[in-house]
Design brief:
The protein has three domains: about 1-25 and about 180-400, Up-down Bundle (Rhopdopsin 7-helix transmembrane proteins), CATH 1.20.1070; about 30-170, Immunoglobulin-like (Sandwich); about 420-555, Reverse transcriptase/Diguanylate cyclase domain (Alpha-Beta Plaits, 2-Layer Sandwich), CATH 3.30.70. It starts with a helix and ends with a strand. It is rod-shaped. By secondary structure, the chain is of the alpha+beta class. It contains 16 helices and 14 strands. A hairpin with a 4-residue loop joins strand 11 (about 475-480) and strand 12 (about 485-490). Helix 4 (about 205-225) runs antiparallel to helix 6 (about 240-265). The strands form three sheets. It has a five-stranded antiparallel beta sheet with strand order 2-3-8-5-6. A five-stranded mixed beta sheet has the order 11-12-10-13-14, with helices on both faces. Strands 1-9-4-7 form a four-stranded antiparallel beta sheet.
């Protein structure tokens, strides 16, 4: 109970932190620096940047950027009033968005303009960890007044220029270091969990373990693309292609999540309709990511809407799954709820941001990896918890099977082997075997004297004496009413007289004197024919012992 309360508290704290981080407005982003107001103007094709940068009143600061549609645009900041020095060079940060090319004019107070233009890679050279672009402002004695951007081929799904902020090199370096720690921790955790769960899958072959490994592997790819690390690892990659991979990896992660959800819960909670719906979503979400990857450049707005609806479909799996799990009293409902609380809340918020209900936020863009790190850790506990129950179910099944076999092979009264089990183990034993047939003398009188319950107790005590007197590798069975068989290796034969003596000394109910007669024979036991010959000879020897007065043993040297 203490662990359960701790995990629930951990889930609440994690979800709260992620949620608060997601809704922090752009103006309060410590990693981005001082937020800048940005106004936009559609490019008519014949505009002079030197004139535009000195007339910011021509720009639209009120209309939401996403309403202006796709195309080429100019964007300008408000007054900067800051100095970029050699010791502390300034950086103008802005969000990485889908655009073909970008150029920037930086206006200084002395009237000079510094121009920066991207190449075919787009803003890839400017990408920092956290997927922010950082435009360097050349050091100057004059103050930096404002910045004018020319954005070509803007898809304008979220906006034209978002998250503009004034920062400096030391602050950007500190942000890069913090983001590197975050993403490295996430990647290391995923790799460790992949190795561990893949090793378990190789040994146990539960599908949810493999689906969990696929989910973690895809999340590593998503972290590489969404963090901007892909641009550092592959400096020649076009930034739009990095964004394509971001959509693709997140779509694949959604599909892996659906499969993991499908295979994680017990079979009893999976209805046919829910199974079918989950499989459809598990296919649709990766396909939507692939559509953006392949055809996003043609119409990103349409492709992004299909992708957003697919992610919404993925979230819609959760409610019926939890409902079925609650109805069937699943052992794993609480862990699943904890693990997916933060990712689901943040996914909903990102969908609202995609639909322009919520504003763009740096924290929301980078919250997915934090929520997925939380999910991966709790899901690792859920996987271990699931394996615990599977192990218990397996152990219980093995125990039932062992008990069933034991009941099928054992005489219920004495606990010795029954005739069928005795023959199954006896036939085929290598080398010469010694077979003893022991029969309790005058057992009918015993029943008449003690009653049937007393007679049963005599049989149990007699069987216990035979078992303790026989060698460890000998077979002891009850093959008839009061008839017992012992089979031992003839190389170490059972001495008949000492055995009879132990049987005489066994204390019976009411100190009743009980004796037995024994017939013995030695021979091979390769097959059923050998058994019949050996048993016939031992039975003849038993008859001879009873004819000679009982309470004695007779032996034949070999089977006829």
């Amino acid at each position: 109970m203490l662990v359960l309360r701790f995990l629930r508290l951990f889930a609440l704290i994690g979800a709260s932190i992620a949620l608060c981080g997601a809704i922090v407005p752009a103006q309060a982003q410590p990693s981005a620096g001082r937020a800048l107001t940005t106004c936009v103007l559609r490019d008519s094709g014949e505009m002079n940047p030197a004139e535009l940068i000195r007339h910011p009143e021509r720009f639209d600061c009120k209309t939401p950027q996403y309403k202006l549609g796709a195309g080429d645009f100019w964007a300008i900041t408000g007054p900067l009033d800051a100095v970029s020095t050699i010791e502390k060079p300034l950086r103008i940060n802005f969000a990485s968005l889908w655009q073909r090319q970008l150029s920037a004019q930086l206006l200084y107070a002395d009237g000079s303009i510094h121009t920066y233009r991207t190449d075919a890679r787009g803003i890839t050279p400017l990408i920092q960890l956290g997927a922010l672009a950082a435009l360097p402002a050349p050091p100057s004695d004059a103050k930096l007044v404002r910045v004018l951007w020319h954005i070509e081929g803007a898809a304008n799904v979220r906006g034209i220029l978002l998250g503009a902020a004034l920062s400096d090199a030391p602050r950007n370096d500190a942000t890069n270091l913090a983001m590197a720690v975050l993403y490295a921790a996430f990647g290391g955790m995923c790799l460790a969990l992949i190795v561990y769960n893949f090793a378990l899958w190789c040994a146990m072959r539960y599908r949810f373990q493999l689906h969990y490994c696929v989910l973690l592997a895809v999340l590593i790819g998503y972290a590489l693309s969404s963090s901007g690390a892909m641009a550092w690892l592959y400096p020649d990659i076009v930034n739009n292609d990095r964004l394509r991979f971001n959509y693709l990896f997140l779509g694949l992660a959604g599909g892996a999540t659906a499969l993991f959800t499908l295979s994680f819960f017990e079979m009893k909670i999976r209805s046919r309709r829910l199974d079918l719906y989950t499989r459809v979503i598990a296919t649709t979400v990766p396909v939507s990511g692939l559509i953006v990857f392949l055809f996003g450049a043609i119409n990103l707005r349409l492709a992004d809407m299909i992708y957003t609806l697919a992610i919404l479909g993925l979230i819609s799996i959760v409610v019926p799954t939890l409902w079925q799990a609650w109805k069937q009293r699943s052992h794993f409902l609480w862990l699943f709820s904890i693990a997916w609380s933060a990712p689901i809340a943040l996914a909903l918020m990102r969908i609202l941001a995609n639909l322009h209900v919520l504003p763009w936020s740096f924290w929301l863009d980078n919250s997915t990896v934090i929520s997925m790190m939380f999910e991966a850790l709790v899901s690792a506990l859920a996987v271990a918890y699931r394996i615990k129950f599977l192990r218990e179910e397996r152990d219980e099944a093995i125990t039932r099977e062992v008990l069933a076999r034991r009941l099928a092979d054992t005489d219920p009264l004495t606990g010795l082997l029954n005739r069928r089990a005795f023959l199954a183990q006896a036939l085929g034993r290598p080398g010469e075997q010694q077979l003893l047939i022991a029969d309790i003398d005058h057992f009918k009188r015993v029943n008449e004297t003690l009653g049937h319950d007393g007679g049963d107790e005599v049989l149990r005590l007699f069987a216990r004496t035979l078992r303790t007197a026989a060698p460890a590798d000998a077979l002891v069975a009850r093959i008839g009413g009061e008839e017992f068989a012992l089979l031992a290796n003839a190389a170490v034969p059972i001495e008949l007289d000492p055995l009879l003596n132990k049987l005489r000394q066994t204390r019976m109910p009411f100190d009743l004197k009980v004796t037995a007669s024994i017939g013995a024979c030695t021979g091979p036991l390769a097959d059923d024919r050998d058994w019949k010959a050996l048993y016939r000879a031992a039975d003849i020897a038993l008859f001879e012992a009873k004819s000679a007065g009982r309470d004695r043993a007779r032996a034949r040297r070999e089977a006829a």
